[in-house]
Amino acid sequence: MGQATQELLIPFLGALQASVAVLLTIFAGVLASQFQLIGADSSKEISKVAVRLFLPALLIVNVGSQLHADTGIRYVPIIFWSIFYQLASLGIGVGATKLFHLPQWVTPAFAFNNTTSLPLLLVQSLDASGILSSLDSSPDVVDRAKSYFLVNAMISNSFTFALGPKFLDTPEDTEASDDQQTPQDPLNSPSDSAALESQRDSAAAANEQTSLLPHRTARTATHSQYALIARLQTLYSSLPTPLRRLLSSLAPFLNPPFIGTCLGALIGLVPSLHTLFFADQQHGGYLNAWLTAALKNVGDLFAALQVIVVGIKLSSSLLKWKKGEASGAMPWGPWAAVTLVRFVLWPALSIPLVYACATRTGWLDEDPMLWFAMMLMPVGPPALSITAMADVSGAGEEVKLGIAKFLTVSYAVSPLICFSVVGALKASQAAAA
């Protein structure tokens, strides 16, 4: 009995420490905001560059290094699993919102959990506490775990881009998970040639003042860009209406993380490119020591910065809460429902389901880290997208303050994930045995 207790207590304490480490990183963002080391506007800019530059670089390195022509099949179940649990969470959110007459913003809170910064930081903390090595002692275990979570994050963020704003009737530029913004579809911009020429001239003049390139080079690049847009618009206008609608609906999925994933997959699956980017220099990896290293340095900035931005956002929300005279009551009902689904229901479903697939079918690769990651993918606090959705949808101040309280308490109880970590760890070990 004592040994069994110890076998559970050690990973539980390790998972708890990892969860608290994530919480303390969030608290660092709160302190930075409270001591006015960074403002809300700066945090938005940091989040934007993290999503549009740091995250694609991280995806290129992690997905590309772990994806090989002979191991690419192991990522296919992640794609299907991500789509399944996202749609299931969305269905739960829609049903609960209508059945119990919950606020509209609760639907995306049910549907979209934090799939990028928190899981990546949790992986690093779990590695520091020795939990990952107890499951897999391979030297690349951390990078492999990150690549699994990043592929899931790409699917999750694509759903957030495309579906999240629609549930609050918000415009397409609503901020998505972890402050990611829906990219504009250039093919839907005004096709009038005079308007396009005016935009081109304005952009050329602006680029001459802001670009580090010579004036002639900057102007030529801008003219070439708008010439390509004009040709694409002409081609787009000539397509049948159903096809144009299909392309328009798919446009939100074309975002920087998705492009980074595609580039990483291309580099990983093409043997010559994989060797060029990731092999030792004496074995043909001529880009590894400088280009790949630079991409890795840039990508490694993503996880910690994004979690700190979470803390800055929560600090701003708490400050508004403090200043609000009629801040409204804490939405304990929606919070309890979302917390129950994310920290209790989904672990209770995902752990035995993935365990059954790993032990009774041949659908999953023989990789305990893959099983462990898939068990934890649906678990975690809701994404911060609902704050931006509420802003754009014109929600009242009292509703926004209620959402701020909701998110603050949700992230405060995020160490609850340690129970799911222990369950996933023991299930993965049992499946491997």
UniProtKB/TrEMBL annotation:
Any single GO BP term:
transmembrane transport
Keyword field contains Membrane: yes
Localization: Membrane
**Pfam families hit by this protein:** Mem_trans
Q: What are its GO cellular component terms?
A: endoplasmic reticulum; membrane
UniProt entry keywords in alphabetical sequence: Membrane, Transmembrane, Transmembrane helix
Where is it predominantly found?
A: membrane
List the membrane topology term(s).
Multi-pass membrane protein
Output compositional bias ranges, type Polar residues: 179-192
- The segment annotated Disordered runs over 170-216
What domain of life does the UniProt record list for this protein's source?
Answer: Eukaryota
Q: Where is the chain membrane-spanning?
A: 12-37, 49-69, 75-96, 253-277, 289-312, 332-349, 369-390, 402-425
Keyword flag Mitochondrion: no
The record's section on PANTHER family has:
AUXIN EFFLUX TRANSPORTER FAMILY PROTEIN (EUROFUNG)
> Can you name this protein?
Auxin efflux carrier
Provenance organism: Cladosporium halotolerans
